[in-house]
Design brief:
single chain, 409 residues, alpha/beta, UDP-n-acetylglucosamine1-carboxyvinyl-transferase, Chain, 4-stranded mixed β-sheet, 26% strand, globular
Length: 409
């Protein structure tokens, strides 16, 4: 789907959609638990549905009634399964260790850039501990890992740590040692919070996680609002409701970033709004907030002065090479932006010219382009704008609710 945006003022209020990151974790934990769980998710997405589909293929019974997913793990895990992770990196990286803990003989399919995204050193650790995993997609997985000590570098992917935390909780215990530095730590904290709600006993000391023998028990779980996706309307100056100010989500830091750039931020009982009309450039360490970089770059492109974003090298391994795609997209709209090895340098302008861009089939690039379009002089055409379905299918509807002038071409 291609769309055309005619720049127009943004105002009004929308409710935050459910956190995709929390939803993945809650659904998987429910399947690893004893008894029934009910997971409330107010808005689904392609990635969440990929996880639901995979869990069902692995033997779980998941029924959706309105916004509630009832999960019954009575037949989970099955002995043999074929699953399709689509383009969801979380689905693949969370479920691979879980499948290895369950001893399921599985064939794992993936699409888009996902087969190109690294699984090392997680894959090697799983093989060392008893699993058999093929070298290429579709992945063939067999064997069963033992409960024991796993060692991972802490700056590769927090998703690897999440998968192992869930797998070892299912196995009845183990230890995960992370070699510093540890990046994207908020995502690990999120996993531990969800596991503990399902009854896990996890302790930490000196970057080592000790998972004790405490069975997971089904429960009712309400998925909180998603700070990652809320960042886009917030950076357009819209009001967003339903956000937890005490959330462990790393992208809650978008509020701190906007304040650092000079925005006045208003908060009341989980409702947030930022005045982004007059921002200035600054330096931003993106090591814990890589997913927020595209939208930060979009507002930095029209901020006063220079913005330097660094420690974002992992962006090159996302749905697109996000350092390159952000620079290409914003550059096509008239921004003064250049990439570095681990980030980008942006010299802000009062406004952008507008133009024609591609989403690179990346949901965050499509949404960042929509944010940039608000401050363009001329119209913006976004090719493959339906990429937003991956995480925020209602984004264009919400954009219209806020006053955005969007037309499907």
């Amino acid at each position: 789907m291609d769309i055309k945006i005619t720049p127009s003022p943004i105002s009004g209020s929308i409710e935050a959609i459910s956190s995709k990151s929390f939803a993945h974790r809650a659904l998987i934990c429910a399947c690893l638990s004893r008894g029934e769980s009910r997971i409330k998710i107010n808005t689904t997405s392609a990635d969440i549905e990929a996880t639901v589909s995979c869990l069902c293929s692995l033997g779980a019974v998941i029924e959706k009634n309105g916004s509630v997913y009832t999960v019954r793990p009575s037949e989970f895990p099955c002995k043999n399964a074929e699953i399709d992770c689509g383009e969801s990196g979380s689905t693949l990286r969370f479920l691979l260790p879980v499948i290895c803990a369950c001893g399921t003989n599985a064939v794992i399919n993936a699409s888009g850039r996902l087969p190109e995204r690294p699984l090392s050193p997680l894959k090697e650790e799983l093989i060392r501990m008893g699993a058999k995993i093929s070298d290429s997609f579709p992945l063939s997985v067999s064997g069963r890992i033992e409960s024991g000590e796993f060692t991972l570098k802490g700056d590769v992917s927090s998703q690897f740590v999440t998968g192992l935390l869930m797998a070892l909780s299912y196995l009845g215990g183990g230890k995960i040692r992370l070699i510093p530095p540890v990046e994207s730590r908020p995502y690990i904290d999120m996993t531990i919070r969800v596991l503990r709600q399902f009854g896990a006993d996890i302790k930490e000391e000196n970057n080592t996680f000790y998972i004790n023998n405490s069975p997971l028990i089904g429960c009712d779980f309400t998925v909180e609002g998603d700070w990652s996706n809320a960042a886009f309307p917030l950076c357009m100056g819209a009001e967003v409701t339903g956000l937890d100010p005490d959330s462990v989500q790393g992208d809650k830091a978008i509020i701190d970033v906007l304040k650092k750039m000079g925005a006045d931020v208003f908060e009341n009982n989980g409702t947030f709004k930022a005045d982004v009309s007059s921002l200035h450039g600054c330096e931003i360490d993106a090591s814990d907030i890589p997913d927020a970089v595209p939208v930060i770059a979009a507002v930095a492109a029209v901020a006063d002065g220079k913005t330097v974003i660094y420690n974002a090298g992992r962006l090159r391994l996302k749905e697109s090479d996000r350092i390159e795609s952000v620079c290409t997209m914003l550059g096509a709209l008239g921004a003064d932006i250049s990439g570095t090895d681990d980030g980008m340098v942006i010299n802000g302008k009062k406004s952008l010219s507008g133009g024609e861009v591609d989403s690179f089939n990346d949901h965050r690039i499509a949404m960042a382009a929509a944010v940039a379009a608000v401050r363009c002089k001329n119209s913006v055409i976004i090719h493959r704008a339906d990429a937003v379905n991956k995480s925020y299918p209602d984004f264009w509807d919400d954009y219209k609710k806020l006053g955005g002038n969007v037309r499907v071409l």
